[in-house]
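Q: Entry one of two.
A:
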Amino acid sequence: MVADSHKVTFQGSQGDQLAARLDLPIGRPRGFALFAHCFSCSKDIYAAARVSKALTEHGWALLRFDFTGLGASEGDFSNTNFSSNVTDLVAAADFLRQDYEAPRLLIGHSLGGAAVLMAASDVPEAVAVATIGAPSDPGHVAHNFAQHIQEIEEKGEAQVTLGGRPFKIKKQFLDDIRSQNVLQAAGSLKKALMVMHAPLDDYVGVENASEIFLAARHPKSFVSLDNADHLLTRKRDAFYVGNVLNCWVERYLPESEMPAEAPQGKEHAVVVQETGTGKYGNYVVAGDHLQFAGEPESVGGDNSGPTPYDYLSAALGACTSITLRMYADLKKLPLKRVAVTLRHEKKHAEDCEECKGKVDHISREIHLEGDLDDEQRARLLEIADRCPVHKSLGAPMVITTVLAE
């Protein structure tokens, strides 16, 4: 399902407007999640965007935002610290609670993971917290500017380079990260915890994950991210994180909030059942294959899948393509590929020479690739009209309907 992404803003801990992106699923969200990005990163980093996409495909809504002074957010980064990041997170949760729905899941990447552990107690609606490559001590980030620490201590501030960009770090930032106790926060979490970390993470060592996990109380889980890098730059790693989080957090949601399960397929039958989310959304199950059907927004739906008429056209198009392939293989024709474009509409007799009165009209355009001569192309066009679905649509049809017991 394709998510809808909106730019939003809210007031941060220091009164500045923080830039955020709210990624929404098709239909009614099963819940809201809040994502905290890594130190000096932004809401648009690959890890944040891809984890969000994976979760929205499972029906979650997710808010990711730029901390004060970072990305597109207002404010002066030099006046921020770890504590202000934590209060920015609480402000983001307040924004969701007021304008949408309080977050049920808190996710933090790298230093953002330490921040969500600290902020979790101020988000009572959250049932689960997940950290990804998080340090057990916020002071860990000081290694990013270790060569400047003495200057910061002596002069009160220093200009440093982080990720190729200049930042001013003040002594109050150092004092703040040194005063934080993330492990204590983990131990008093009172929410389900997922610790995700790559054993070969050369930025935040896996021993940090061990310390967080051991400090926390049950229910807690650990997932190894195998050979993923710290920033989850590979698409498959970020999507793996999102997919695992979706499966894990379901265990901690009330049963009433669980989405309706897709129906079981039946032999030689297609099963269509409402999804229970959104408007006009339906599961379409054919054997082992699951699809979705819906209606566009123009007629009151939420575009959760192809329309019933789209599926009708798809049936004709697929049958056409398969029939042409079977014929070409049988006759050993040099047909490389078939593409069929179909459009369905209602037409009146005056608009269609073949029609009498108002009828359904499907236009079918067939594209044939391959070293075919004119005679072979003409023959394939004739064969297209012989596909079984075409014959069924053109023949009288009887549909019987009964109520299931």
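Q: Entry two of two.
A:
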Amino acid sequence: MDEELLEILACPKCKGELQLSVDETELRCGKCRLSYRIDDGIPILLIEEASPIE
């Protein structure tokens, strides 16, 4: 994922910083403990589509 894009993206729920997962398949918000998947290089930043981080 492009570093510049990653710098401007924020969690849609808390507006906090998102971290790219090691395998680059999701963006994670540590504050909300939510994970947003990345489909074909496009982050799906919909709260209702997020998964809880275990």
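A: Comment on entry two: The mean pLDDT is 94. The longest helix spans residues 3-8.
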